[in-house]
Design a protein that fits this description.
347 residues, Aminoglycoside 3'-phosphotransferase, Chain: A, domain 2, 5-stranded antiparallel beta sheet, 11 helices, 13% strand
C-alpha cells in the first residue's frame, strides 16, 4: 500500500489538491489496477474523486494479442485523444504519466451496463440495451467517417494470422484444456481446415475500426449517459465485430426475440446514420459470432488455468451456445458444427 500511497499523493498534487482518501478497486481480466482517489477539495467542475490507473510492468504492452509491434505511445492515450476529438463519450484523461506507470482519469463511478440491468423489468431492460446499440451506431458514425489512417488502431488489423491465433487459442484452452478433447491427426486436420475457412472469410472483411470489446462491462452508466471504456486495443475488424461483442455478450444472454429486436434497431440506426449495411450482414454477424465466441470460450479457461481467475468459467457455456446457434444458420460451415457438436454438451 505504501507504493500506491506515494503515487496517489503525487497524482493528487498534480491536480493541485491534497489526498483525502485512497480506495483500491478490484480488477478484472486486465493487468491494470484501479484506485479511487478522494481529493481534499473539489476540482473546478466540482469533482471530488478521480481514478488512478496503475498500468503494470509493461505499459506499452497490449491487453490483447495484436498484429502490430509495440506501440511508441500508450495505446489508451492515443485512442482517448482520437475518440474524444471525434465526440465519442470516453473518460477524460487528466494526468498522463504513463512513462512512470500511471494515469489519472475521470471517475465514472461503479455502475457498468451489466450491473445496471440487474433486477430491471423486461421493458426497462430492453430500453437500457437499446441505449448500448444506439451508442454503438453513434460511435461508428463518428469514427468511420474519419479520414483513412486518422484512427491510431494500436492493435493493427484482424488479419488472417491474428484471427487464426485467437481460434487456435480456443483449440488449446477451450477444446483441449476445457473440454478435455484429444483430437487425433485427422481430427486436428479437420479443425485446421475449418478454422482456416473462418479466418480467411473474416480477414477479407476487416476494414472498419472496431472497439474490440464493446460489451456490457465496458459501458459505464453515468449522469452524462453511457461512457465507453477499455478501448486501448481497438483495431480494424469487420463491420459486425462490435455488434457481436455487444449482442453476444457472454455476461448478458438475450432471448431470440430480444436479439432480433436489437439487430433490427442497429440496422435501422445505421440506415438513419447514412452507413450502408452489407447485404450479407446477418451471415457476417453469425460468422463473426463463431470466431469471437470460440476465442472467448478459450480465453475464459486460460484466465482460470493461467491467471488464477476462475470467475470467468461460468461464461464458457453461453459462449459455446452462441457458437452453435450461429453455426445452425451457416450450413456452409457444417463440418465445423459437427466437430464442435462432438465435444460440446447438449444445451
Amino acid at each position: 500500500m505504501d507504493g500506491i500511497g506515494s503515487i496517489a499523493a503525487e497524482a493528487a498534487a498534480a491536480l493541485g489538491r491534497g489526498l483525502a482518501g485512497v480506495e483500491p478497486l478490484s480488477g478484472q481480466a486486465s493487468a491494470r489496477r484501479y484506485v479511487r482517489l478522494r481529493l481534499d477539495r473539489g476540482l473546478p467542475g466540482g469533482e471530488t474523486s478521480m481514478m488512478l490507473v496503475l498500468l503494470g510492468d509493461n505499459p506499452l504492452g497490449a491487453e490483447e494479442v495484436t498484429s502490430e509491434g509495440q506501440a511508441a505511445e500508450l495505446p489508451f492515450s492515443a485512442m482517448q485523444r482520437f475518440l474524444a476529438g471525434r465526440g465519442v463519450p470516453v473518460p477524460a484523461l487528466l494526468v498522463d504519466r504513463w512513462q512512470e506507470g500511471w494515469q489519472v482519469q475521470e471517475d465514472l463511478g461503479a455502475t457498468t451496463l451489466k450491473a445496471s440491468l440487474e433486477g430491471l423489468e423486461a421493458s426497462d431492460r430492453m430500453a437500457r440495451l437499446r441505449e448500448g446499440v444506439d451508442l454503438l451506431v453513434d460511435f461508428q458514425r463518428r469514427v468511420w467517417s474519419a479520414a483513412p489512417g486518422a484512427c491510431p488502431t494500436p492493435a493493427g488489423r484482424f488479419d488472417h494470422a491474428l484471427l487464426r491465433w485467437e481460434l487456435d487459442h480456443f483449440v488449446e484452452w477451450g477444446l483441449r484444456a476445457g473440454l478435455g478433447a484429444r483430437p487425433d491427426a485427422d481430427e486436428q486436420g479437420a479443425w485446421d481446415r475449418c478454422l482456416d475457412r473462418v479466418a480467411a472469410a473474416l480477414a477479407r472483411r476487416a476494414d472498419r475500426v472496431a472497439h474490440r470489446d464493446y460489451q456490457s462491462t465496458n459501458l459505464m452508466v453515468t449522469p452524462r449517459g453511457l461512457v465507453l471504456i477499455d478501448f486501448q486495443d481497438a483495431l480494424l475488424g469487420t463491420e459486425a465485430y462490435d455488434l457481436v461483442a455487444y449482442l453476444r455478450d457472454s455476461y448478458v444472454e438475450l432471448a431470440p426475440a430480444e436479439l432480433e429486436a436489437l439487430l433490427r434497431r442497429y440496422e435501422a440506426g445505421r440506415e438513419a446514420a447514412g452507413i450502408p449495411v452489407a447485404g450479407d450482414f446477418r451471415a457476417l454477424f453469425d460468422l463473426q459470432t463463431v470466431q469471437r465466441k470460440l476465442k472467448d470460450a478459450g480465453r475464459f479457461v486460460f484466465l482460470d488455468r493461467v491467471k488464477g481467475k476462475p470467475g470467468y468459467l461460468p461464461y464458457v457455456a453461453p459462449s459455446l451456445r452462441y457458437v452453435m446457434a450461429a453455426l445452425d444458420r451457416l450450413p456452409e460451415h457444417g463440418e465445423l458444427r459437427s466437430l464442435l457438436a462432438r465435444q460440446v454438451p447438449p444445451g
